[in-house]
Write a structure and sequence with these properties.
Keywords: DNA-binding, Isomerase, Magnesium, Metal-binding, Nucleus, Topoisomerase
CATH class of the largest domain: Alpha Beta
Radius of gyration: 23 Å
Organism: Durio zibethinus
Structural class: alpha/beta
Catalytic activity: ATP-dependent breakage, passage and rejoining of double-stranded DNA
GO molecular function: ATP binding; DNA binding; DNA topoisomerase type II (double strand cut, ATP-hydrolyzing) activity; metal ion binding
Order of helices and strands: HEEHEHHHEEEEEEEHHEHEHEHEHHHEH
Pfam families: TOP6A-Spo11_Toprim, TP6A_N
Distance between the termini: 38 Å
CATH architecture of the largest domain: 3-Layer(aba) Sandwich
Shape: globular
CATH topology of the largest domain: Dna Topoisomerase Vi A Subunit, Chain: A, domain 2
Strand content: 15-25%
Mean pLDDT: 89
Largest sheet: 6 strands, mixed
């Protein structure tokens, strides 16, 4: 929403921006090189023998940016340019995307990842979430099912068209009047599976809400899912491919991403339960050998690295066991492989039976 009145939060951020820039100017005017302290956060480590505090939302060290290091000069330049744009967005009570910001100085920024890093640094410096800066990302997520809500005055009536995909709102904080008679929330990794469920009229046959982030979930998708879980108090299940990347997507929903570890508590859903696909499902559901693909060297490397994450040992050991089994067997398969039995096997048999029989891995 745009308007003339600044929120208390925006005013507080503008004050912090002013204090930060004045301190930098004061150092420069007195011939000192400014020191910018940026705290560092993480959602996991690889020290399996210690009682780490990765999930405590506390910083794990810090980084110091200074003009005295040539490698830091460009990074500070980018940070201050992005900070100026953020200040303008807050003052004018407008929203801009990360891509909008990139194209304001493309020759200086050179790459979108440079802007993304600066935005993360600014969030840490100002101790806020990215959406508080009025910086939004283009939403990729889709939702369908037994749900109705308003966003910025616009009505989303998924219930009226149960198997029609609706885009997930970018400004999640503007979502109001959530109404649902669903019994659970199902998160699926990719759009092809989402469309399979839509074609099979899954939501009409099963009283649920289905969400997809279309791969690695963006911030609006994760924030929207967290909002639904908090407001509706429904069980939430996640269905991903039986491969390292599917597991990593599952972990992103459950624990957050390392890139935005500073904001993980607002971007993770601890209640999420892993519905599948498990390595053991290939036997339990009689998948023929031609549906199983060998793990590549990159798959094995990624799996071995994920197995070292501390949260797999401390919080979800059963998840770790399935990941170890995947590595041991050396094969992977996609969710769509279940279609070898019938086109609607996923909708009619696999998902309903797993939920009814409780053959999923619960959160702790």
């Amino acid at each position: 929403m745009e308007g003339n009145r600044l929120s208390t939060h925006s005013s507080d951020l503008l004050r912090k921006i002013k204090e930060l820039t004045l301190s930098i100017l004061a150092d420069l005017s007195e011939g000192r090189s400014p020191l910018i302290f940026i705290q560092r956060f993480r959602i996991h480590c690889t020290n399996l023998d210690s009682n780490c505090c990765c999930s405590s939302n506390k910083p794990n060290g810090h980084e110091i940016l200074t003009f005295q290091k040539e490698s830091h000069v460009h990074r500070i330049d980018v940070l201050l340019r992005v900070l100026l744009i953020v200040q303008q967005l807050l003052q004018e009570n407008k929203h801009g995307s990360k891509r909008d910001i990139y194209y304001m100085h493309p020759s200086v920024f050179s790459d979108q990842s440079v802007v993304d890093r600066a935005i993360n640094d600014i969030c840490i410096l100002l101790q806020c979430s990215r959406h508080n800066l009025n910086v939004v990302s283009a939403g990729n997520g889709l939702v369908m099912g037994w749900l109705r809500f308003f966003e910025a005055g616009r009505k989303f009536d998924c219930i009226n068209s149960l198997n029609t995909a609706h885009t997930i709102p970018v400004l999640v904080e503007d979502v109001k009047d959530l109404v649902s008679v669903a019994q659970y929330i199902l998160v699926v990794e990719k759009e092809s599976v989402f469309q399979r469920l839509a074609n099979d009229q899954f939501c009409k046959k099963n009283r649920c809400v289905v969400i997809t982030g279309r791969g690695y979930p963006d911030v609006p998708t994760r924030r929207f899912l967290l909002l639904l879980v908090d407001k509706l108090c429904l069980p939430v299940y996640c269905l991903v491919d039986c491969d390292p990347y599917g597991f990593d997507i599952l972990a992103t929903y459950r624990f957050g991403s390392m890139q935005m570890a500073y904001d993980a508590k607002f971007l993770r859903v601890p209640q999420i339960q892993w519905l599948g696909a498990f390595p053991s499902d290939s036997e339990n559901y009689d998948l023929p050998q031609h549906c199983l693909l060998p793990l590549t060297k990159e798959d094995k490397r990624k799996t071995e690295a994920m197995l070292l994450r501390c949260y797999l040992w401390q919080q979800v050991p059963n998840w770790r066991s399935e990941l170890e089994l995947m590595l041991q067997r050396g094969v992977k398969f996609e969710i769509e492989a279940l279609s070898v039995h019938s086109l609607s096997f996923l909708s009619d048999v696999y998902i309903p039976s797993k939920i009814q029989q409780g053959t999923y891995i619960c959160h702790i």
